Structure prediction request, 295 residues.
Amino acid sequence: MIVNRVLKALGRTPAPVVPVIRLSGVISAGGGLRPGIHLAALAGAIERAFAVPDRPAVALAINSPGGSPVQSALVAGRIRQLAEEKGVPVLAFCEDVAASGGYWLACAADEIWADPSSIVGSIGVVSAGFGFHALIDRWGIERRVHTAGERKALLDPFRPEDPEDVVRLKRIQVEIHDQFKDMVRRRRGGRLRAEESEIFTGDVWTGRRALELGLVDGLGDLRTVLRGRFGDKIRLRAVPTERRWLPRGLRLMGPGSGRGGGLIGADRLGDWAAEVGHGVVAAAEERALWARYGL
Prediction:
């Protein structure tokens, strides 16, 4: 920024700077061992990106198989709020995957670009789980569930699936799907070139096919497109996000690290172990999300 002011004082035009926000990973409420996409981690980065002086645009580099619809809506909503307040165009670039919630994020942009081989779409809602009731029956394990409210326990994996639970889940899924479809309609509008009966099935397409359907506006990578738009001297500035890579209970060796010192404070060992367990489960769920798209 100081360099830009000096150049302006000398009567020279500084190279334009485009801030780049990287939206990479599963969209979740946060926590655990692995980083992800959620508003708490990205709010500061989004604010900083739109605060860059004289930026001709803000770029989104998206590589996500989806996840939480709530966090998808919150992050996309914050981007749209600042884009409209600042009057700055937003360009999204789909990398390997911009599917489900990842495509929801892309719709926050004014233009969407993709690689011809990117996986794009999945405008739908999915819920998945396991049924362990036969396993615990085999081992003679008794499942005990007590509720206040007859519908408090939904799709308990340790009991046989209840058809009424499935009906309730489907109702929730339809409401969330409608919100997703409304977002796509608002942001893509007349650019969609196919019937909704084809686009809103939850199917996915390559970037090339997504262009034919009107889900993206062009094919190209971030650097090439921005250099073509703003000139070869364009500077791309990655905006750092707030990511926590280590569990809260993990502490470096030294005074205050625990009652007796050491790597992990004894008083935090239980918390750390619980968070490690949560992280292992989250990692497995994330692996399953990526695997849906062959990655």
